[in-house]
Write a structure and sequence with these properties.
about 90 residues, flat, single chain
Length: about 90
């Protein structure tokens, strides 16, 4: 079954999501979510702790730091930028 990233669709609009993202397998989608959006995905047979350990080992520069691209960190950075611009 072909899958797409709902985060990309929500952020970019369904029409601007590349057609390659409409043809992802389940494993490709999980990898995309982890690599692009820095969100750990729990695979079949994994505990939450195992998923977190695997994710941190594969993505040492991810959360929490200024390079994290998860939706929560992006929102925090945008909010901080907006607050800073209002103060100047």
């Amino acid at each position: 079954m072909a899958l797409m990233c709902k985060i990309c669709a929500a952020l970019n609009g369904i029409t601007s999501v590349g057609t390659h993202q409409l043809e992802l397998t389940e494993e490709q989608l999980y990898k995309h979510i982890e690599d692009v959006h820095h969100i750990a995905v729990q695979r079949d047979g994994e505990t939450k702790e195992e998923a977190a350990q695997r994710f941190v080992a594969a993505h040492p520069n991810a959360w929490p730091n200024k390079n994290c691209s998860c939706p929560a960190c992006q929102t925090t950075r945008r909010t901080q930028l907006a607050l800073n611009s209002m103060q100047n």
